[in-house]
Every structure is written in structure tokens, then in C-alpha cells.
Amino acid sequence: MTVELPVKRLADYSVFSKEDVEAIFELGKKLKGLKVVHVNATAYGGGVAELLMTIVPLMKDAGLDASWEVLEAPMEFFNVTKKLHNALQGADIEISEEEWELFEKVNEENAKRLNLDADVVIIHDPQPAYIPYFRSGTHTKYIWRCHIDTSTPNLKVWNRLTSKMTKYEKALFHIMDYVRAPFDNIAVEFPPSIDPLSPKNREISEAELKSVVDRYKIDVSRPIITVVARFDPWKDLFSAINVYRKVKERFDVQLAIVSAMAKDDPEGWIFFEDVLRYAGVDKDILFLTDLKGVGHLEVNAIQRLSTLGLHTATREGFGLVISEMMWKEHPVVARPVGGVKIQIDDGVNGYLRQSVEELADAVCDLLENQSRLREFGKNAKEKVRKTYLSTAHVKRYLEIIKSVVK
Questions:
Q1: Torsion of CA 379, 394, 312, 308, to 10 degrees
Q2: Could you tell me the CATH number of the domain that includes residue 219?
Q3: Which of 112, 208, 310, 367 could form a disulfide with 204 if both were Cys (CB 3.0 to 4.6 A apart)?
Q4: Angle of CA points 256, 257, 263, to nearest 5°
């Protein structure tokens, strides 16, 4: 399925990073008309989809013939790929022969069905990873973009998966810690980005803020600790609740858990119910999800209304929700996992801590020191501006594409 794209203009981003925009236009002149197709599992509900909704239109504006295709697959396929995702992050999971056969069958069908006649095809994550294997006799160059923490994968699953991933020219990982054979010689460190003009990150008016406050009955007179995360065991929302409970012993705080249910994550519904039960009847734990009408603009408002961010994931490919919170001039307290540890500079724009007790102490430190809270917030926004905006991301993509087609 071809995804319908919005129109985005690079010129609108010059206010944030003029140098990157100029570099993109220069690269675009050399790649003008080149056909590039991105392929992933879903058009909504996850970080990859959000990225592509900005990256692909900006590639088009730079002069490339860029498009985005999404897999067509039954729910049983997504049950298998969720197991695959967890295994690549280290879970001790068995994938049966029948499940591997379904995985290959869906990839083979999509290799024929999707519009993939292009100069470069960029495959995102494991779901469509076998598409190149099932395409022959084309001039296409393939790039694999991995958004998962593969630092300690289940090797049996990793080796089986990668055994047929032999046609890739480059493999892009958030950080080099994630790189393993057979990609050692083609791997590139490749962090993602946030779109400063998207509904989730743009500046919003006082009226829009007030609308969200009124609709969700948010008490802005007390500090709000905000966690933005999918309902996924790796996000460890139980620890987030435990941190909040410890902080609550010293400060009259609220915890906002903000989330969306993704199409390709059937396990999420079960975990959502588990977290709800664990939270109990505490009225200061706010569940703000798309089930209650929370969309990107509402997430933006909630983050801006927050005092600081909290992230308790035990595995994290990158964690763009951290950059999103930092962009709103709020520090984040988080576990030092995956891409989290390259976004947060400990003691500069947030704190990196491991245990529930350490995380709670770090939150309390910021609540006790308002000047530090503000200083960390300013540092946080500047870090994102320099490193993790869409323009830097598009520039990196064009450089990689140029390297594989020259």
C-alpha cells in the first residue's frame, strides 16, 4: 500500500538550521529525480511511521522521487513480528517453523505486490527485511534501517533472520553498540529525528493549551512527571509508577502516562490492562491515550505542561520521546539504555540513573532546584536543535543514498 503524503517544504525549516537546509539542496541537485522507496510495517501508531511522515516529503522537496510503501499482512504476521522484535532485543523466545514460513510468505507476497521499482529501497526494521531476498534481476540498491536495540539479541533468532539479508548495501543503526555480524562492514551510525513543525512539536497557543487542560482536567498547579511510551514490557511502566510513588512521599506530584496503541503491536492491549491494574485507583496517575482522543497535538500540549520527563525503559532503540520532551525545554530523567544515553548528557540536560531509587532521587533533585530545572531545560532544547531535528536526518539520508548509487 502506498501512503499518501503531506506536502512539506525544506525552506520552512531554515529558521531552525539554515546550514542543514542548504546542504540538503546541494545534495538534492546531485540526486535529482532518483527514485527512493521507504518500506515499513504500519502508517500510524509508531515512531517509524512518524519519522517517515516528515522524512519522505522533505526528500521529495529536495528533488528526489521519494515514496513510502506499507506492508499488507494479516494480524497473525504482526504477532510473529512482535515476537521477532522482542527476540532481537534479547528475549528468550522460540519462533516456530510455521511462524518463520508465515514471515517469509508475507515478505514474498509484498515483494511482488508493492511498488518497489526504484533506484534505492530503504527497508525499516525486521518486518519487511526479506523483501530484497524475494526480488531478482533489478538494478535496485537496498538499505536496511534498524530502529531496534540489537546489542544483545537472541542469537538463534538473529542468525536465522539475517541469513537471508544478503542484498543490503548499507545497514543503518541508531548507535554502533547495536551492530553485529553480518553487518559489521556495511554498518553506519544513524540517529533519528523529530520534526519541529509537526503537530507533536510545533509551538502551540495558550488557547490550545487551555483546551487540553480543560478537556482532560489536568491540574497545572502541581508538578507533572510525564512518561510517553507505548504499552510494551520493555518500557517498564511499572517502574515509572514506582518512581512516582517514591517521589510522592516528598512532593505533591502527578504522573502522566501518555501513549498510543499501534496497529502492529497486538501484545500492547494486554500490557495496557496490566499497567492499569498496577496503578490502581490513584487519581494522580493520569492515563492519557488515543483511546481518550489524545493525538499528536495533545501530546505536544501535555509535554509543554509537564515539569520534567521520565523514561524507565530497559531496552530502547532510540527513544525519540526524549528528544520531544527536551525540545519543549524540559529535562528528562531516564535509564542509560540504547539511544537514550546519547541524547541525555548526565548532569547537563537531564539525569541518567538505573534503579527506581536513583531515578526517584534524580527527579526530587530537579523538583528541589528550580534554577537547575530551568538550566537543564534550556540545555536540552539546544542539544536537540543541533543534533536531532528532521533536517539533520534528511541530510544523513541523502549522504547515504549518494554513497550507494555513485
A1: 30
A2: 3.40.50.2000
A3: 208
A4: 150
